[in-house]
Amino acid sequence: VYPGSADAAGQRATLGVLGGGQLGRMFVHAAQRLGYFTAVLDPDAQSPAGLVSHHHIQTDYHDPAGLAQLAELSQAITTEFENVPAQALQALALTRPVAPGAAVVGIAQNRIEEKAHFAACADLAGVSCAPYAVIETPAQLQAVQAERAELLPGILKTARLGYDGKGQVRVQNAAELAAAWAELGGVACVLEKMLPLMAECSVLVARGWDGQVVSFAPQRNVHVDGILAVTHAYEGNMPPALADRAREAAVSIAQHLGYVGVLCVEFFVVDDGSAQGGLVVNEMAPRPHNSGHYTLDACDASQFDLQVYTLAGLPLPEPRQHSPAIMLNLLGDVWLNAGGGQREPDWRSVLSLPGTHLHLYGKAQARPGRKMGHLTITGPDVARVKAVARRAAGLLG
Ligand code: ADP
Ligand code: MG
Hints:
Layout: E1 14-18, H1 22-33, E2 37-41, E3 55-57, H2 64-73, E4 76-79, H3 86-93, H4 102-108, H5 111-120, E5 128-129, E6 132-135, H6 138-147, E7 154-158, E8 168-171, H7 174-183, E9 189-193, E10 197-207, E11 213-215, E12 219-224, E13 227-233, H8 240-257, E14 261-270, E15 278-285, H9 295-298, H10 303-312, E16 325-331, H11 332-336, H12 347-351, E17 356-360, E18 371-378, H13 382-396
Parallel strand pairs: 1-2, 1-4, 2-3, 5-15
Antiparallel strand pairs: 6-9, 7-8, 7-9, 10-11, 10-12, 10-14, 12-13, 13-16, 14-15, 16-18, 17-18
Helix pairs in contact: 1-10, 3-4, 6-7
């Protein structure tokens, strides 16, 4: 699909996206910059992506008429939301190129399949996932309680629909494990051993229809209460040997999946007694990722540009980072703490700091933990970026 082109009937080249959140919004921005028209399917009339798209189809992800309209309008379709129903992607794929495909999105939607996939990738540069057990039945729960004491203390995670630390319970012992499984409704879960984390990082990979692969250097991520708070993206953000292995493993995961699109793979750096620590693969997201937002301001092609390039079948540039960067997530708490509730933070002071790039997603209501925007800080060197990031964080509370 070439940008700016029109078909015989005069219909302009249009890229479609399932889901209207902030990731969809930034995809729409990237597509429009290249001259594409865009179509967003999201039930919410005020969705961040729907607000800025040429077409906004306001229906449920299951609605056959809405999906047909999306396919009608779009030459190729992607998703910004990993919990989009696999049937929706399958239905669209009958008539249009869809990337990533239903099968790989299905794997990423389910921690049990995801971990099995990681285990099946033979050449992950020596990286494995955390020790874990599947708990889908009371018998499995009892077997884990009786035979897998090494997994405790651990984290019980629902196999499906978890994000930002939701659908997870930390458990110390066998009794807490049983209570936690009941609390999660007895749904399919994995119990993961609690690992001593030294750091967390993630790698963005983009792979085209023709198998061309490019990747970004790993970014180091700091989570607070299970939600990403800060991303550090600059040379020296982690030991180079670990960074190389994480990147290799992520590329290998994308290749094994026959993945098309942008994939984010999250890793733990675990204290294994060595100075650098060991690498453990955590999970993957079949889409651009919050930890890659710095690429908008610090790289000559962003993760959203690459999502457009992969979807449209354009050649992929090897992304080059031209500036060190730190990204601060702006959660609803920043607004709520600004005083009086729903007041605006002090943008005048934040924006007067050098190298600040403010991104707001157009969400009207601030709520605790809600991702309202992010602030990326770039600069001539890491020391100055860190200094500005500290001042910005201070202003934002
Ligand atoms: P989500 O889908 O919510 O991002 P994750 O599995 O990435 O779920 O877990 C969220 C956060 O919880 C991680 O980024 C990490 O900080 C912490 N965490 C998850 N699993 C483990 C583990 N096995 N050991 C230690 N910390 C963990
Ligand atoms: Mg995660």
